[in-house]
Amino acid sequence: MTSLGKLIFVDIHCRNPKTSSSNELQTDYVESLSFAFQNLFSMPFDIIENYGNTLHTLDISHNKFCRSLHFLSEFDNLTSLNLDYNNIDAYAVFPYMPKLQLLWLNHNKVEHLYPFIKNLYESMPNLKYLSLMGNKAAPSYLNGGTFYDYLQYRLFIISWFPHLVHLDDRTVTPEQRQEAKRLYKRPFLENLSEHTPLPECLKYLHKKLAILFSKPVLPDKMQNAKGTNVII
């Protein structure tokens, strides 16, 4: 369904320990772990304790995780996370994960892009690969969305993530980046805060004002233009 499938999640029980002196699994060397299809609501404590410092890739797809995802903060070195087919909605709370580069959230329950995408950016500012297919907030012909609904959705997300190179099943192009920047201009204070540290009190005030007054409105559907569409 998505070209991001090149990433392989390795089941812990199929890995061989690097130390041959013991037949037991050496947790110090586990970097990839799959707990898909385990009917989990929360992460077992022993998994966090044993693998929190070593994991780079975690697959917890096809479970029952929803809004409370604070346990992810215990996995300090995660760069890839698969949360496909869970119960995550637009109000899910993600911890700050600056090392995360790949996030799969396909087939969850995200119905609204705002403030979900804004919060996601604040938690994972360095994402390079993001997929939201199968959510109501990600319009496509499969859920009744038009081509222009999809285009606006795509440009809105690109406008938030400066390092994004792949969204859903397509690469982010320079043309899309430029058009996203034009359509969804960021407030001056937000642009400034990305490059200049701001006092916590000022950040708090800005966040409150942003929630009250600056909820973005997706532009009207673009008129169907003749010729080749260089954005997609």
TrEMBL record:
Write the lineage as a comma-separated list: Eukaryota, Metazoa, Ecdysozoa, Arthropoda, Hexapoda
Q: Which organism is it from?
A: Odynerus spinipes
Q: What is this protein called?
A: Leucine-rich melanocyte differentiation-associated protein-like
Q: Which Pfam families match?
A: LRR_9
